[in-house]
Design goal:
This protein has about 475 residues and is of the alpha/beta class. It has 14 helices and 20 strands. Helices cover about 40% and strands about 20% of the residues.
């Protein structure tokens, strides 16, 4: 299968550099070579961004929307090709990869239109005085995207910045670079001014430590792990830069005793298998009412055994390999620890084969609270089922960790919904389904899961600053 020839994009121009191999997680074969940006490349990207920002912020919002929507159309036309490249580099089934591409297009379209509605306001005042509030582009953005969603995560940053009128320098994942490469290519072809969007790859620490302190950069947006996010947030804070931090989670799922345990278990198993569990909002800690715990756990385990894993390009595959060997090692360590402490293995548990990163959906029941997996985000296909006496206990256990990105619940009780909405400490709560966000809703976390929002009008606001203009129309004589 074809894989793109990867290049950096600086000031609208593509350039090659030596770098590192990109591997297929299915069999560890080499797909291509990823270029690494030099210090001179980063310097040029900043200079180009200054010129690009000046041109882009002066572009009428309607014209900006037109260019962005043209990019979305190009991506839709190329969706099959892009999806195939994502499957090769990241492992997810091609059907899921194509859904990700189309979701990225929806994000672009929504942000493009929302950029036309970045309204200000007029504050009433005494005669002869005008107070006007204006929302302006914050300036050049440095965006850092993760490997688990190669195109939709970079799109959140690029579309948000461009819709607000900002230039952005995107540092995309070195392990799954093709999605971002196709994304930037579409925007360049659609007519984004030179420098308004640049694409860098390289050593993550070198790029972040160079870009974030630079005075040209006015905002940092990062999606990734809590430890890295804290380091970048501290670096941004040291230079008085605002930041959007979308960090890790360890999503709780509260299953109340008033639901069908078999149906909710089936939905949960399919949701847990999405992207092989390598999702910051992946449902992971299942707190199940004691009255239905055993039936839920049994049904979850049986459903998990039916999830077909293998080559993501095979239409029969429902879950592809993990993206890298680090995730395999983490799964093995966490499963071994939980079982040693008394957890029951209901499905999965071992890597398949001796090459690549295939690992089945693994289900553990009666997981003790002191198991490492109950505190450390697995970021893989591991479901942890824990028995609870009532809703109060479940909420308490769900809130016990420092994470607070997404949470889920299954219930048909209005009082339960009200209590969950009031008491669960998360940025996103979904009830009776497992979709954490869509383009028009804000997405982000609380506590160690970060701050700031992506998506929705709240997300666009993060890329703007507020200016108050106070005008005395009639001066005293």
């Amino acid at each position: 299968m074809a894989y793109p020839r990867l290049q950096l994009c600086i000031g609208g121009e593509w350039r090659s550099r030596p770098g590192q191999p990109v591997l297929n997680p299915l069999d560890d074969s080499v797909l291509g070579e990823l270029p690494h940006a030099t210090r001179a490349d980063m310097e040029e990207a900043l200079s180009a961004a200054e010129a690009g920002h000046r041109a882009w912020r002066r572009t009428a919002p309607a014209k900006r929307a037109e260019i962005m929507q043209r990019a979305a159309r190009l991506l839709r036309e190329r969706a099959d090709t892009i999806a195939e490249a994502i499957t090769l580099e990241q492992g997810k089934p091609k059907g899921q990869a194509k859904i990700e591409v189309l979701r990225a297009c929806d994000i672009i379209d929504w942000d493009a239109e929302e950029g036309r509605r970045a309204y200000g306001r007029v504050i009433p005042a005494e005669p002869g005085m005008r107070h006007i509030v204006i929302r302006e582009p914050i300036g050049i953005v440095a965006g850092f995207a993760p490997w688990n969603f190669p195109i939709s995560s970079p799109t959140r940053k690029v579309a948000g910045a461009l819709a607000a009128g900002c230039a952005i320098i995107l540092k995309a994942s070195e392990e799954t670079p093709a999605g971002a490469w196709y994304l930037v290519q579409a925007f360049i072809e659609a007519g984004v001014p030179k420098g308004a969007l640049s694409l860098l790859f390289g050593v993550p620490g070198e790029i972040s430590e160079y870009l974030i302190p630079r005075p040209e950069v006015r905002l940092v947006t990062f999606t990734g792990s809590v430890p890295v996010g804290k380091r970048l947030a501290a670096l941004a804070g040291a230079h008085m830069k605002p930041a959007i931090m979308e960090l890790g989670g360890h999503a709780p799922v509260i299953v109340c005793g008033d639901v069908d345990p078999v149906a909710s278990a089936g939905i949960s198993a399919v949701g847990k298998s999405r992207n092989a569990g390598q999702v910051c909002v992946s449902p992971t800690r299942f707190f199940v009412d004691d009255a239905i715990h055993d039936r839920f756990a049994t049904a979850f385990g049986e459903k998990a055994k039916t999830i077909a894993i293998g080559n993501g390009l095979d239409p029969a595959t429902q879950m592809g390999p993990l993206a890298n060997h680090r995730r395999v090692e983490a799964m093995e360590r966490l499963i071994a620890d939980a079982v040693s402490r008394g957890a029951k293995l209901l499905a999965g548990g071992e890597r398949q084969g001796n090459r690549g990163c295939l690992f089945p959906l693994t289900v553990l029941s009666d997981v003790p609270e002191d198991a490492l997996a109950m505190h450390e985000e697995p970021f893989g296909p591991l479901a942890l089922i824990h028995r609870t006496r009532d809703l109060g206990e479940a909420i308490g256990k769900a809130n016990a960790l420092p994470f607070g990105l997404a949470g889920y619940a299954f219930t048909h009780s209005a009082p339960n919904v009200e209590r969950l909405s009031d008491e669960l400490e998360v940025g996103n709560l979904s009830i009776n389904h497992l979709v954490a966000s869509i383009p028009e809703t804000p997405f982000g976390g609380v506590k160690d899961s970060g701050y700031g929002r992506e998506g929705g009008s709240e997300g666009l606001a993060c890329y703007t600053v507020t200016k108050n203009v106070s005008h005395l129309v009639t001066a005293a004589v």
